[in-house]
Amino acid sequence: MILQALNDYYERLRADPETEVSDFGFSQEKLAFSLVLSEQGSVVQLRDLRQFEGKRSFPKPAVVPKLPKERSGTNAPSYFMWDKSKYVLGCELDSDGNEIFFKNQFDSFAEVHREILGDNKDSGAKALLNFIDQRIFGQVPEWATKELLSTGFICFELDGQRGFLHERSAIRNAWQEYLRKNQSEIRGQCLITGQHDCSIPSTHPQMKNVPGAQPAGAALVSFNAPAFGSYGKGTSNHNAPVSERAAFGYTTALNVLLAPGSRRKVQLGETTVVFWTDIPGVAEEFFGLSVGVKEAEDHEMAQEVDQYLRAVVKGYYPHELGKRDTPFYVLGLSPNAARLSVRFWHVGTVGKMAENIGNHYKALRLQRSFENEPEYPRPWWLLKELAPQRDSRHIPPLLGGQFIRAIVHNQPYPRTLLTTVMGRIRADRQVNYLRACIIKAYLTRNAQKEISMGVDKENTNIGYRLGRLFAVVDYIQNDAAPGANVTVRDRFFGAAAATPRRIFPVILKNAQHSLAKIRKEKPGWAITLDKSVQTILGDVDPRKGFPATMTLEQQGMFVLGYYHQRQDLYTKQEDKTEE
Amino acid sequence: MAQGVQLRVWGDYACFTRPEMKVERVSYDVMTPSAARGVLEAIYWKPSICWKVDRIHVMKPILFDNVRRNEVESKIPVKGATGVNAAMKDSKTPLRLYIEDSRQQRAAMVLRDVEYIIEAHFEYTNGEDRNDGKHLDIFNRRAAKGQCFHRPYLGCREFAAFFEPVQGEIPQSALTGEKDLGWMLFDIDYQADMTTTFFRPVMKNGIIECRNQRVVAK
């Protein structure tokens, strides 16, 4: 289904006049120079196609003939109608500016063009063949500048005529004829289109711009080691018969989605997520900004997304997103050296997607500690909380994909989410808004717990109660000895959450000492604090006492109780009455 | 049908690998007919019959999960000095693969908590041994006792299948509505150089119709 949807997307892109995708056998490349040839094949002019902005130069993007696979190896054949000077002139400058000559490449350029153009009657074709005949190996023509010999791709045009040689219809036809003749001999049923008797290529074009994969490109469909082949098909893509055209289609579409600056791509840890709809519009943008992107580029955009989120959290559907039943596709990819692996794949509708995102953010909702904290924390920020030192490189690799999958499918969150966040809290003893959000979302969705946004004094869950108690004790100690080197939280947080029976009697006793100290200075406040300890403890079953151990879920509740109570303690009384 | 059987199979995991994504494995949404055939053949098969899968009932919602495993990239060769042929000839050459040198970490997107009911019948491949009741009884007896030639599996050998015959009517699936499953592997034509054949099923209320497809693999 994945490849089919991508191939369909390619067909749609091709039908859309506003987007430029290349046809089969052509590719968009960046050209630096053009040689203007006379009909006799001599070079009339050397034209620089680059645009300059200050010191930087930008080669001109152009659609040129290219086989749908990457060139590789030391003696790779020349491209048709364009190439580097290594091929065109057989000469290239090394980094020290010395001329180095390449015989194989020089010959390959002639060979390829003679084979394809042969006895072509077109004047442009003749001019190029004449040019090839006049080249002498080992000599650099005087018009060749140093830049031409060291950078960029070269193409050709005919003197006195508009456009490049590779744009002439006679030459395009010759190229297409060549493609037809050179398709793979092996035929079979295409697994994307279902068509019988298609020509099946042995490799597919590669995908670029996937962080973590090889920069030259990685393959989604490949069989690059003997153990991967089946039924004697070896390491070729005949293991998975895909027609030449469909292979080109799906890879082109995926490359468009992955292109730098694409708005249909988000990066989460090592997972690259691409998404698209049948009807382009706000929906794609909304998804990208609500699920991915570290920061929306401009403030206005971020506010707009927050507004949509506010609506979907309440269960409304913002009509700006377009028709509800527009199909929506999400594909999560992650790199594995020269290959790409699929982390998840989801086909839904825009309406369902908005609903699922709404459910996710609803599960996350929690009272903020500070005004500047995000009301709707993006997955990226949450994932960073799970990494040691908040370094995005240390995000557990599988988790990003699983987390997004849980969001788009509206499924339970991965359990590792809870174990990882509890592990982080135990390690650095920091309970902040984002971590509390993660725990709340997990417990709401996976353990079906009812959890309020702020402190819930009626909640009798033992974990929650003890968490609140711990917050009060922490507060008392802080009040009695402000700026202590080691606080009760630093020493006891993890242990108090895991084994209350062992820890709580100790810290409650210590709290009494602290209370005694506060009583000397602020007797009224000491009574208030003492009362709140009593009220919280009041509901703890005296027969059972403190539980010896607590499960991970109870520990999660402990963290939430702690977070809520602390919020409550540190919020000024007047603020509270206003709410 | 006089030659028809019904078998319930289930398991914790399944991976009906898509051929286009068999290196970093991605499973099809549902069991393929050839995987169903494999399950039946694991329980009972002989050269005079061949199994034809009629319908596959998908009983549980489709759920995916990701796993990452260490595997190897090479096979022990058949030919050559270190190959299987050489080892068989002199019965001394050790057959070995050093995993340290050929380790490959592969990710897989597999199915979780699956349950299917396979409806199938058998056909005869030649004139011998034509006795409907006998084959049917053998299959049902073996399936009820849990006997099999090798443990049936759900797509990959590591995802073992549990099985039992279905008595009486087939229960309603948990799935409703129609779902286009795209082009799916139907089977492999072993007589035409192991060519793969594909079909385009539509799942209606959890039922996938597998008849009226090109007949392959005799």
Question: How would you portray this structure in words?
Answer:
The complex is a heterodimer of chains A (579) and B (218). With 579 residues, chain A is an alpha+beta fold. Helix content of chain A is 45%, strand content 14%. Chain A has 20 helices and 15 strands. Chain A has helices at residues 2-15, 85-88, 103-117, 123-134, 146-150, 169-181, 244-258, 282-291, 299-313, 350-364, 379-385, 397-409, 415-428, 433-446, 462-480, 488-498, 500-521, 523-538, 552-570, 573-578, and strands at residues 26-37, 43-48, 51-53, 56-58, 60-65, 82-83, 91-93, 99-101, 153-158, 187-188, 198-199, 265-268, 271-277, 327-336, 339-349. The two termini of chain A are 51 Å apart. Chain B is an alpha+beta fold and 218 residues long. Chain B folds into two domains: 5-69 and 105-217, Alpha-Beta Plaits (2-Layer Sandwich), CATH 3.30.70; 70-104, no CATH class. Helix content of chain B is 17%, strand content 36%. Chain B is globular and about 55 Å long.
Keywords for this structure?
heterodimer; A: 579 residues; alpha+beta; 4 domains; five-stranded mixed sheet; four-stranded antiparallel sheet; 45% helix; 14% strand; B: 218 residues; Alpha-Beta Plaits; 2 domains; nine-stranded mixed sheet; two-stranded antiparallel sheet; 11 strands; 36% strand
- DSSP strand content of chain A: 5-15%
Uncertain segments of chain B are none
Overall 3D form of chain B: globular
In percent, how helical is the residue content of chain B? 10-25%
**In angstroms, what separates the terminal alpha carbons of chain B?**
21 Å
Domain count of chain A: the total is 4
**Secondary structure: number of strands of chain A:** 15
Global Rg of chain A = 33 Å
Counting helices, strands and paired strands, the structural category of chain B is alpha+beta
- Determine the structural class of chain A based on helices, strands and strand pairing: alpha+beta
* Continuous helix count of chain B: 4
Number of helices of chain A: 20
- Average pLDDT value of chain A? 84
The pLDDT mean of chain B sits at 89
Shape of chain A: elongated
Find the biggest chain interface. Answer: A-B, 42 and 35 residues
- Model regions low in confidence, pLDDT < 50 over at least 5 residues of chain A: none
Report the portion of residues of chain B in β strands.
35-45%
Radius of gyration of chain B: 19 Å
Pfam families (chain B): Cas_Cas5d
EC number (chain B): 3.1.-.-
Organism (chain B): Desulfonatronospira thiodismutans ASO3-1
Family (chain B): Belongs to the CRISPR-associated protein Cas5 family. Subtype I-C/Dvulg subfamily.
